[in-house]
Amino acid sequence: MNPLELRQQCHTVFPGHRAPSPAEQFAAMGAWCEANAARGDYYGEGKVVQDFERKVADLLGYPAALFVISGTMAQTVALRLACEDRGSSLVAMHPTAHIALHERSNYQLLNHFKLLTLGDKHRCWTASHLAAVPDRLGAALYELPMREIGGQLPDWAALDEIKTACRVRNIHLHLDGARLWEAAAGYGKPLAAVCAGFDSAYVSFYKGIGGQGGAMLLGSEDFIARARVWMARMGGNVWQRLPYVVSAAMQFDARLAQLPACVQRARELALVLGAMDGVAVNPPVPQVNMFHLHLPFSEATVVAARNRLAQEDGIWLFGGAQAADKLEHAYVEWYVGDQLLAASDAQVRDAMACFLDYCRA
After folding, report:
1. DSSP state of 343
2. What is the rounded average pLDDT of the residues 107-135?
3. DSSP for residue 288
4. N or C terminus: which one in the chain shows less Cβ crowding within 10 Å?
5. What are phi and psi of 216, to 5 degrees?
6. Using the 8-state DSSP alphabet, how is residue 281 labeled?
7. DSSP assignment of 163-219, as one string?
């Protein structure tokens, strides 16, 4: 049985938000459309889509926004345009950036830009890392929070130093905001304050928001106008965007309002789990509603124990497992959404204890 089927058969799922059935989600979308007299769009031209673009742009403090079908496409286009404007094809980013790890070298194979990694792979990069780069950079990408290292954020002063350093060196600073909503809650700052100083930003609507998919690219009017052309060139100019936009818009405000409680719950759970033998939490105090659990077992052992817990006890504890730097160690990601808001400390502790017993068996 594959992981999706295992998860779907469980009576208790801890990570993320509750996933409604397709019938439930489509019914809710239909009700929202009826209540808001929604009409379809034509290649993105339509009141619902454009109103949502305007709402997000205003919330984040940008002049313009464009709903796009995927974050991969949004960021590739953003960085290509940034490099054209600055006269350099070189983009600096963290070694664990999504573009560097998960996009199959599209930036290189499609000749969009060249990638330069900077900083330690276990920590957020800083202005001092940028100062050590002698090359002329077209752009720098900063992910807030950095998912692959447990949802880490630079402290507020360090982030401001990065923004200043890029402005002084005329480097286009782009925000990988796939989880920007979580970052703002972690900082306890308004979204526009986090985005201030970033020349462009991308945000996702299917992660923390729970939409069906899609993303948004934000920047100046001219930047977004040029990005719109590139979306068409790359096959991203889909005929109707309404279903994606509705699935996000109908729960957008509620999800944002919920995130501070999710951050607090993550910090509470880190104390519960970190006190268990063999479990290490990274970061020790979560900076957003996400953290990693490091375990003294191999990746294969961890996955087998997760599957056994699902099959025998009906509990889904986490998604994938990754091999850690230390041999025979692995780590897993926990994202705290409404499902863990509703779970008690005792439920979590008991499920984790059972899982650890399976790992040791």
Report:
1. S
2. 90
3. B
4. C
5. -140, 140
6. E
7. HHHHHHTTPEEEEEETTHHHHHHHHT--HHHHHTT-SEEEEESSSSS--SS-EEEEE
d(CA 285, CA 76): 33
Give the pLDDT score at 109. Answer: 61
Q: How many CB atoms lie within 10 A of CB 317?
A: 23
Q: Is 142 helix (H, G, I), strand (E, B) or coil?
A: strand
Report d(CA 137, CA 116) in Å as an integer.
Answer: 9
Is residue 289 pLDDT above 90, yes or no?
yes
List Cβ neighbours of 145 (8 Å cut-off, separation of 6 or more).
151, 152, 153, 179, 182, 183, 186, 287, 288, 290
Q: Which residues pair with 334 in a beta bridge?
A: 291
Q: 213 with 205: CB under 8 angstroms?
A: yes
* Per-residue pLDDT, 235: 87
Q: Is 71 left (phi over 0), alpha (psi -120 to 50) or beta?
A: alpha
Q: Give the mean pLDDT of 21-37.
A: 95
Q: H-helix or E-strand containing 117?
A: strand 114-117
DSSP at 294: E
Within 10 A of 89 (CB to CB), how many other CB atoms are there?
19
Backbone angles phi, psi at 142, to 5 degrees: -125, 125
Give the global pTM.
Answer: 0.95
CA dist 157 → 124, 160, 224, 271 (Å): 13, 5, 29, 27
Q: Please tell me what DSSP assigns to residue 285.
A: S
